[in-house]
Amino acid sequence: MSAVAFPIPVKAAGGCSDAPVLRERGQHEVFCGLTGIIWLHRKIQDAFFLVVGSRTCAHLIQSAAGVMIFAEPRFATAIIDERDLAGLADANTELDRVVGQLLARRPEIKLLFLVGSCPSEVIKLDLSRAASRLSAQHSPSVRVLNYSGSGIETTFTQGEDACLASMVPELPTQAADAAQELMVVGTLADVVEDQFIRLFTHMGIERVRFFPPRRAADQAPVGPNTRLLLAQPFLADTARALQARGAQLLSAPFPLGVEGTTAWLQAAATAFGVSAQRFESAVSAPTARAAAALARAKLHLDGKSIFFFPDSQLEIPLARFLARELGMRLLEVGTPYLHRQHMAQELALLPEGTFLSEGQHVENQLDRCRAAHPDMVVCGLGLANPLESEGMTTKWAIELVFTPIQGFDQAGDLAELFTRPLVRRMRLAA
Asked: For residue 332, how many other CB atoms are within 10 A of its CB?
């Protein structure tokens, strides 16, 4: 079928496509890429993440994950101790022993990730070679891959990008005569994935794969007939690797709020030749439900000012959602990295004149935040408590990654994540 073009549902007024960006370099406050394990291990249900690192790495992950009560988690840390650092033990021999013990105890593991950390990189432990060796040893029952979650190289959400990029070379090659297939890229909660499957099916798009998959063996073929739709904005390396395999990236905003989700779905509908009538039939009911939920939240947020510290790379799509659908005023939108190609439509939808910053010099940004006196600050855990002690209302950036926020049915939940701190502050002040 031939493609049918759809307009973006709300026209941009001015936008920030060519807006200047303050680029800062200096002290920054973010989690390292190991944190991505917390949502990745829940998504790929037969995978295991073995961090090769220190006790500090183990404490970080366990603290971020919280207490695992109902099930044994699918992550652990192979501790690098003083003997390893002093060269008194062969780190590769020790790693092989730990992996052997792990797989004997957990025979359900089908995909094992060796995750690099700052300590493993300091002692120059070649985890890529170790993964190849262990994969050959335990094949075909277990595949072993590796990626870096080191804070030296990655920040917070980049851990997912590195993980997914390591999986791309393992994907099978799409047959030359294969039908066009949609690949949604980025970790989504199962409930959100199921909702998107129903919407795509209603539109008539039935060849849809999600990456990462729920099961390691569910490897989607990739090639020139693969159309990529990014569900997360922090997957630059993964998208590049998939495009190198021939896949074509669809340009779209990210599926946050009514506007973003509609435009995101429209990008797929256009690529797959879905008629305007069928598209409208698929999205009309969930759009109405989401709009009603947002109307209630707007009563609390309309006219309130917000300041974003750089943390997750979700900042620009979130700012677009809050400004255009909930009436919030954007004082500064900081992001760790600004990928202009992936953010092209988001930037076009931002209010003209929005102050954008990339990277971080935390002292300078704190000065700007204090001078601006925002109604709300979105920041990492390390900054939230100090700012709360100064009388500011904060929202933890990490909660926006851990919580299902994509799609129509989550739009109200996403808005509530921002209304809740303001309501709490108001009640405390009463």
From this structure: 23
Centre a 10 Å sphere on the Cβ of residue 52 and count the other Cβ atoms it contains: 27
337-to-37, 235, 340, 345 alpha-carbon distances in Å: 21, 11, 9, 16
Bridge partners, 49 (sequence order): 75, 113
Domain segments of the chain as ranges: 21-28+290-429, 33-154
Tell me what percent of the chain is helix, strand and coil, each rounded to the nearest 5: 45, 15, 40
Residue 185, C-beta contacts closer than 8 angstroms, at least 6 positions apart: 164, 211, 228, 229, 230, 231, 232, 235, 238, 239, 242
Give the tokens for residue 362.
């935390």
Residue 377 to residue 389: CA distance in whole angstroms: 13
**CATH number for region 33-154:** 3.40.50.1980
CA distance 330 to 308: 8
Identical fold for domains 21-28+290-429 and 33-154, yes or no, is: yes
- Over residues 51-79, the pLDDT tens digits come to 998 888 888 888 777 654 445 678 988 88
Q: 146-186, pLDDT tens digit by residue?
A: 999 988 767 789 999 999 999 999 999 999 899 999 999 99
388 neighbors 243 (Cβ within 8 angstroms): no
Whether cis (ω within 30° of 0) applies to the bond prior to 20 is no
Homologous superfamily (CATH) of 21-28+290-429 is Nitrogenase molybdenum iron protein domain (3.40.50.1980)
